[in-house]
Amino acid sequence: MGNYRHGIRLSTNSKWNNITRNTINGNTITGIYLEFTSNNNIIKNNTINRNDLGILLSSSNFNNVSDNNIKDNNWCIFETGCTGNIIINNDCTTSTIHETIFIDGAATGVGAHNWTWAESQIWCSGSGTEEVPYVIENLKISGFGFMKGIEIRNSDVYFTIQNCEIYNSYTAGIYFNNVTNSQLIENNCSNNFGDGIHLYEECSYNDITENIANYNDNSGISIGDKCDNNTISRNTASYNDYAGVNILGGGFDSCYNNTICGNNVINNTYGIRLDEACHFTKISENIINGNNFGIYLYSMDSNLNHNYIIENIISSNKLGIYLGSESSNNSVYKNFFLENGKHAYDDGTDNKWNSTTIGNYWDNHTGPDANNDGIVDIPYTYIGGTAGSIDYLPIAEKLAPEGLDPGVIAIIVIVSIIGGLTITGVILRILEKKGKISLEKLRKLSFKKK
């Protein structure tokens, strides 16, 4: 077979069927899937190879699963919420992935999956202190299309999840609710039926660093209501159906002081989206490329104010930045707008498009600079929207890498005004990745005034 998700799927209330002598290979989730109350079926003498999960029985009872050849799947047979199934004489190979993980830090009683229980598991080390946090690492987990990969609730201990691969999960690969003091480092949370990483609500002081969250059905990384002081840094969140990074909010005064820094956010519907009552968010030094909307601030009825959008490369998006009508007193400067369909649109109030010393680089407004101070002599007045916003200090082209052919570099950075080489290095790295400049030539470049 080799279909997209399931080889054979019996949907709700499918009963008294005979699934016999089929070859079901290479599906992304299950070979055979029996959904809710699919009872009294026979699954016999089938060859089921190279699927993520061979056979899934979900709330389906009194089925006969026997004499099947189930080889080279990541998991052989999985039951959830079932009773009375007969599962005998199947030829299964050992599972190659780990089962999903659920931890509730507030759970008590016999069988409670709290951190004391987690300490007893082979996949958990550490003691939950700041000096010796719990560590969950090096796991490959599938949610088989209906479970979360790793779910943690009601936790204030210190813990780290690192170097795990989590896919095919429902809602999210990694899902937190009321969690503080975590680190998510170098995990791959791609190809999930929801978000790659989701902090649902009341999740604060969490670090999400150097993860990959691509090709998810919703967002790569998502943060919800009353989630403050989280850091999202140096992640790749690309090719997601909704947003690369999404700060949801949820009500008045819902989230504060989150940092989104140094991420690659490419080819999503929204690159970075702030939605509903997000305040004092810092969005800086991100590469935001090829999205429908690069950075998007929007709220139905709550203010999005005092957010900072600084030193981002915003390129080849249909719209670079959009500030909605409830956006006010946000600061946008030291950004680089390159080859967007429309660079910026502002329907808000009192948003600032320059600091006291510098604005943004706009590739359609790079001169003149008669006094040679690195600032275009004429303000940038092409920001769309009802606000009538103006960048009064747009960046001029000033410094060029020596030895670079004319027309090759997309932007010339004013290092003396920016105050460092960080953003210059990022731009040159983009050019190197695009094949416009070799790595060897990049290393030899020096900067000079024209």
Mind sketching the topology for me?
Elements: E1 6-10, E2 18-20, E3 23-25, E4 30-34, E5 42-44, E6 47-49, E7 53-58, E8 64-66, E9 69-71, E10 75-80, E11 86-88, E12 91-92, E13 101-104, H1 115-119, E14 124-125, E15 134-137, E16 140-142, E17 150-155, E18 159-162, E19 165-167, E20 170-179, E21 182-185, E22 193-201, E23 207-209, E24 221-225, E25 231-233, E26 243-247, E27 255-256, E28 259-261, E29 264-266, E30 270-275, E31 278-279, E32 282-284, E33 287-289, E34 293-298, E35 304-305, E36 308-310, E37 313-315, E38 319-323, E39 327-328, E40 331-333, E41 336-338, E42 342-346, E43 361-362, E44 399-401, H2 415-418, H3 422-433, H4 439-444, E45 447-449
Parallel strand pairs: 1-4, 2-5, 3-6, 4-7, 5-8, 6-9, 7-10, 8-11, 9-12, 13-17, 15-18, 16-19, 17-20, 18-21, 20-22, 21-23, 22-24, 23-25, 24-26, 25-28, 26-30, 27-31, 28-32, 29-33, 30-34, 32-36, 33-37, 34-38, 35-39, 36-40, 37-41, 38-42, 41-43
Antiparallel strand pairs: 14-15, 44-45
What does it look like?
The termini are far apart. This protein has 450 residues and is mainly β. Strand 14 (124-125) and strand 15 form a beta hairpin. The chain is elongated. The chain has 2 domains: 6-92, no CATH class; 101-444, 3 Solenoid (Pectate Lyase C-like). It is built from 4 helices and 45 strands. Mean pLDDT is 88; it is low at 399-424, 428-434 and 441-450.
Strand content: 35-45%
Strand order of the largest sheet: 13-17-20-22-24-26-30-34-38-42
Summed up, the domain count is 2
Low-confidence regions: 399-424, 428-434, 441-450
Shape field: elongated
Quickly list its features:
elongated, disordered C terminus, Pectate Lyase C-like, 2 domains, ten-stranded parallel sheet, ten-stranded mixed sheet, mainly beta, 45 strands, single chain, 450 residues, 6% helix
